[in-house]
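Section 5.1 Outputs to date
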Amino acid sequence: MTFTDRLRALQRRKQTVLCVGLDPDPARLPRPLRGESNPATAVRTFLQQIIDATRHVACAYKLNLAFFEALGRDGWPVLEATLQYMPDDVVTIADGKRGDIGSSARFYARAVFELLPFDACTVSPYMGRDAVAPFLEYEGRAAFVLTRTSNPGARDFQERRCDGEPLYLAVARAVARWSQELPGTAGLVVGATDAYALAAVHLACAGLPLLIPGVGAQGGAIDPILQVARRSPVLVNSSRQILYASDRSDFAEAAAREAEALRDQLLEACPS
């Protein structure tokens, strides 16, 4: 079964397209956990409680590798433990934004798909096809390629004209071509903060899975997502709005409420 097929099956069964982003900042942990002498231990406890609180409404979790790397030598064990704690009925995404020459890319892919049991990884296309290809060669796994991201600086390069269209559309069309050779292995990262770009990518590459960040703290709108979900699988990510819904002892319950509310807003995007 391809990654895309598995994702659609999970979404259909659980009736959710919500992806919970795990970006654990020790400085923003709830107050009851800030007294822990080892920040890595506090992060591990925090993430496990967030997973327990949201697993019933999430079809995916996106783990931002930078936050684990910043924990130093304790970060890798926390990352492994968090992956091992995941329920069976979700997909996991390594948000590492990898993008290097072919030889390095092969080892990045090996790290996330062999040493760590991730289902997908975010990848930068800036260095071209050979930076992405190793991630597309793993059966049942996938690469989500950065296309039109949700950060303010995205327009610096992604909206530059390339053969008469924005660069992000050229990237999307290239990924669509690559995915024809290995169906079900590629998706696109398109932020909810630019409704026009989201619609344009969808029209150009309908059918490719879309990982959509920018909902919640970044202010992305829901309605444009519901429109593209009619023809393309979508994963809608929310991180800070869910993770840091409360800094008190009720943080897990608050996270569950935020996740449930967002899941409910996105019900129309679920496959039938």
